[in-house]
Amino acid sequence: METFIHAYSWIDVRFLLQGLWVTIYVSLISIILSFVLGLIFGLIRYMKIKYVSAIVGFIIDIIRNLPLLLIIFFTYFGLPQLGIITNPTTASIIALVIFEGAMLAEIVRSGISSIDPGQMEGARSNGMTFGQAMYHVVMPQALHNMIPALLSQFVSLVKDTSLATIIVLPELLYHAQIIYSQNTTYLIPMYVIIAIMYFIVCFCLSMFASHLQRRFDTD
Predict the structure, then answer these.
(1) Which residues cross the membrane (predicted)?
(2) Nearest to 170 by CA among 68, 11, 17
(3) pLDDT of residue 93
(4) How many Å apart are CA 114 and CA 130, to the nearest integer?
């Protein structure tokens, strides 16, 4: 017990909170950008545009079958070879957006496909353009169906930020490693507290998703 008390000194906790902030920052930016990317690619796949949809689908399949760690390595070590200089934060965000965007594209495509085609046909017959019908009729219903899968993917994204420790992203796990490397007796206390912090972040994300789903149910 004494080890835990010493491990959770204000200095160490404040250092962990700094890492937690980096985790939250990288996660939020990646969630927003990957959702936009996934939405665009998912729509392209759903619309079955000649050649374009097939090419996008091929790229998505490749990315989805690559390890995220490999993509992180490429963005951090490979992009500079192409003249694109990145820091650990930028490289992590790019890697997460690429990987999660591909995952979300499939969720979006399947979510839209789950809506009865008659919904689109009915909206078009009432004078709506394809874009208007998609925005006002199809997409709200599809998003409602996609919320559980989207939540699962976003929670995975938050946890996947820990992989960026390998490129020295100063996130939560990296800060914990620094602390227990100076005193190995702090290893278990550090794992306990970062598990609690990850749980709080993911739980809050789950509550937000549940709130959104209730809003959709009442609309």
Answers:
(1) 20-44, 51-77, 186-209
(2) 17
(3) 94
(4) 17
